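Data availability (excerpt). The following record was deposited with the supplementary files.
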Amino acid sequence: MDLVLVRNGLGNVFCEPETPKLSASLRNLTDKPLNAFLTCKLFPFDRQEKTKKQKVSVAPNGSVTINALPVPVRERGHYRVQVIAYVTQDCMIDYRTNLALLAPDTRKKVNSPFGIWSVIYGDTATETQRKYLKEKAGVGFFMDRTGDYFDYRMGTPIPDDTAAEKYISESNPDVKIVMLGWEHNWGDKYSFAFPGIISEARFEEHTPEELARMDDAIECYRRIIRATRKLRPNAKISLGNSVVNYTVGLIERGKLKFGIDFDYFGTEEPMYFILPERWESPLGNVNWWTKAVCEHYGFHDVPIFHSESIYYSPKPGFAIMSPRTQAANYVRAYLLGLPYNSIFGFSGAIIDSGNDYAYSLWGTAGYCNVAPECSPKPSFVAFATLTQMLDGARYDGLLETGSTSVYALRFRKPDNDFVYALWNVSGSRKIKVSIVPGGHPAVWDTFNRPMKARVLSGGMELTISDLPIYITGAVLNRITLLENIPESEPGGTLIAQFSNPNDWTFNANRGYWQPSWANPRVKGIWTITAEKLTAPPGFQASKGQAQVVSFKLLPRDETRVDTAFGLLAREGYFGLNQGKEIPVPEGTTRLGIWLYGRSTWGQAVIVMKNPKTGEEVFIGGWGIWGISRPEDEICDNFDGWRLLKTQPLPESITSGSYVISGVFVSVFPQQVYVKDVRNTPDPKITIGGVVAFREKIKIPMNTYLPW
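Predicted structure:
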């Protein structure tokens, strides 16, 4: 038996008014009649699934073709499709794919800031497929071909102008971007560090060898610049990428000038599993840091060129980020970059790698699954909605929400109409939107589907989540935050309710690790206080209130002033006093930590100790760990209570021989919100208690299936 799905659109992507069609052809490979039971399932994103079952008879060496869609697809959005053909227990085929129905394409496709990698290693799709999918997604109109960019990485000797002209002459005559210093750095300690001139009000310190290398680089770049301006006058020059620190030394010493020597300031972000709003991670949202360097050296209104931005979905080598999260992160990364006059050059790839490169970071960063089918991921539909909504639009400011975990950005279209993008960093909550009279508001979700709103006098109530929504056809006045939407029942067993500050001792001398290029943190001075807050589920409470413990960061310490260091996290360690340590029950597979958020990025690391040996295990993490072990992080930005789960515990802890002995906390005195730096109004970490879970930990299977 063989099962083949036949579609009428490249990559299963359809555009209204097209009608999606998907046929399933079942072939009998034997010389005997075959009776099969076919089950066709359709899973619309965030909608109720639909199922159709039927029995078919297939002649020897014959085939039968049926409609693989159990119901017609009439609503825009992303759909998972499953067809199961069953003959006997030993003869069954489970075929899975995706399809998308997009809005009519009204993009002008002029001066679009969105570009992607033309093709990644192991992408075996045809050029016809790539072209079709790029056009439907609304990307690739700025950077569309591999020859659109040309980079100089300091690997080729450029002794004089003649050598530079020979080098540039090898580029595409229509090259759009020449990148200087792409994938280059001065060493490990600078690779992912933040610019000291901004974070600590000091110049970078370099060795004589590094300074000599900088001088050589500047001379080479100047020759490349002259050759580019002469031979490729229409090309733009982008300075640096990956790390802002790389370009700081060049600007300080070489006095390269914006508008003369370079046109874009290059950067590489956001990446991997790091939430796009997190500026404090070296591979997170570094828009602000990039712009701050430009402003510091007098370069104003410099467009940022994003040379890489990748979020990979979970197959086959990685199975932590869901397709939903990939879609949310990609779209939010663009929305946060657009206020900085950004050009997105290589934002993901259109199609995943189909060979062993899929196990790399870039291998599953595409918006579509592997060839030959190239079925769309949710990120494809989300991206197509973004480029449709913001076609030709420019950032026009933000609406105050009263919380740095809720974002409301305003964009102005060429016809002067507004488009608003709204989202919550994580979780869902209700908001009230005040509207200027005279408009006709329409609300659209991430997949370009119209959303229902509760209409009020002068406004409406909406629910927002980590997936951005868009409002068109009206002018908004303000956003009023309403209640959070509770998550599902947390489950687990509450093993500790922290309510007494006397149970804890602050140790100012103990650090989780010393601040480094990957973990830029400063020791803080903290106090321990008791608070009464609305009780989370399972807590001992009186009149709905529970006493909990908060760790509060003081506004300054003895040696550093927050105005110079406010964007670096302040770290502190709090140990539980002898006899107050919390035994971890035998069989515990995960821990849950109840944190109370105040729209401030807060992080925690739980310290587990073996009382017999004194051995300690740290559960949690921050900074660079977000690349390869995102589950290690106990970190978020939200309002109210949230239960954050740890990664699966080591087997030694599940045996029941460890206790919780303390916690490291980290808070930021200041934080970046879109383009603003804001003081943290209430710099606290509140830890209400710890929940133990006994879960069967499922190890994800490596699979090339689309879902």
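Summary of structural features: The mean pLDDT is 87.
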